[in-house]
Specification:
CATH superfamily of the largest domain: HUPs
Strand order of the largest sheet: 12-15-14-13-16-17
CATH architecture of the largest domain: 3-Layer(aba) Sandwich
Largest sheet: 6 strands, antiparallel, barrel
Number of domains: 3
Oligomer: single chain
Length: 379
């Protein structure tokens, strides 16, 4: 295909910011997937000078069956050829290992359940990638995230995507004013089904490529086997919360998260009800995993949480005694709440209704309507 010719699309690009004279270069983070490819295509359609950049961020087992970076690069190059744009490749594996993966391991070793996508976005995609893109002469960067940026009186806001089933603002809440001022999210106003239709119309081979899952940049793999490479296994007892009865053996506290039902290996217990068992607590000092029966057990329901390592998009905390909404997990409806006792180090979030299996290490993200205000790590 002639690299100067774009596929003709019937998609409205009016909602995508137009380039300014002399400031029209955008570098798009290309993953090889359909989202980043369509993001690049729409920016080109809107008049931007588009350059793709493929990030390689994991090298420990590059030949492993679960590491798809080689195929992803091939898919990204194929999309770039159709779109008619140059491609760059950058290796951020050292930054990823130091800034993201090391923290990932520390959190698991401490018995918490981290969300690597949150740290990956703030430290790699919108820091290392942004810095590299600016050095290459970019005026803006763009990604295929489902989110939106809006400028209001000189302040940049992070907004939910129009497609609520794909909104990724939860993973982006640690972005500050500086990266937001340089970032475009071309898919923020588009539904996923439309993105795939655009890709198919344009002749992109990845139009039906499966969305990536698993650990950010590492991929989907047997989690326990992977974690065992880096952290020692320390088996211990599984007990019913509030009692001394030993129900079974766990394979290491790092493998379990609050609210987990599968993989406990205790099944029915003589003298107990037939309700399923759920992880309710961890005793790191005694290496005991505590479980309870029933999804609605009181130990799994809490009205209040404390959060630390706070990050606010506008560099200021939300008002106290105001009703906001919050998520403590990505796939969760917004829950009405108030944010209290806010200081530089931590805050408390009080929910109107009890929340299920609030998990240390995960993020609580605060919203005011569609605007993501920021959040912190559940302590």
């Amino acid at each position: 295909m002639d690299r100067d010719k774009l596929p003709m699309l019937d998609t409205d690009v009016a909602l995508i910011p137009q380039p300014e004279a002399g400031r029209n270069t955008v570098i798009v983070g290309m993953s090889g997937g359909v989202d980043s490819s369509v993001a690049a295509l729409l920016l080109k359609q809107a008049g931007w000078k588009v350059i793709g950049l493929f990030m390689k961020n994991w090298e420990d087992d590059d030949n492993d069956e679960y590491c798809s970076s080689r195929q992803d690069l091939i898919d990204a190059m194929a999309a770039a050829d159709i779109i008619g744009m140059d491609m760059e490749v950058a290796n951020f594996s050292a930054e990823y290992k130091d800034r993201v993966f090391a923290e990932f391991l520390r959190e698991y070793q401490a018995g918490r359940t981290p969300n690597p996508d949150v740290l990956c976005n703030s430290e790699i995609k919108f820091k290392a990638f942004l810095d590299h893109a600016l050095q290459l002469g970019a005026d803006r960067i763009a990604t295929g995230h489902y989110a939106q940026v809006r400028e209001v009186r000189g302040e940049f806001q992070l907004l939910k995507a129009e497609d609520g089933t794909k909104d990724q603002s939860y993973f982006l809440y640690r972005l500050s004013q500086a990266p937001l001022s340089k970032t475009l999210f071309p898919l923020g106003h588009i539904y996923k089904r439309e993105v795939r239709r655009i890709a198919q119309t344009a002749g992109l081979a990845n139009h039906d490529k499966k969305d990536s899952t698993g650990i950010c940049f590492i991929g989907e793999r047997p989690f326990r086997d992977f974690l065992q490479r880096y952290l020692p296994v320390n088996q211990g007892e599984i007990r019913a919360l509030g009692g001394d009865k030993v129900l079974g053996r766990h394979q290491g506290l790092m493998y379990y998260t609050l609210g987990q039902r599968d993989g406990l290996g205790i099944g029915g217990v003589r003298g107990e009800s037939e309700l399923p068992w759920y992880v309710a607590a961890k005793d790191m000092e005694r290496n005991i995993l505590y479980v309870v029966q029933g999804h609605e057990h009181p130990a799994l329901l809490k009205h209040t949480l404390k959060a630390a390592n706070l990050s606010w998009v506008a560099a200021r905390p939300p008002h106290t005694h105001w009703v906001y909404t919050a998520k403590t997990r990505y796939r969760q409806p917004d829950a009405p709440c108030e944010v209290e006792s806010v200081n530089a180090e931590n805050c408390e979030v009080h929910f109107a209704a009890p929340q299920w299996a609030i998990t240390p290490g995960q993020s609580v993200v605060i919203y005011e309507s569609k605007v993501c205000l920021g959040g912190g790590i559940i302590a």
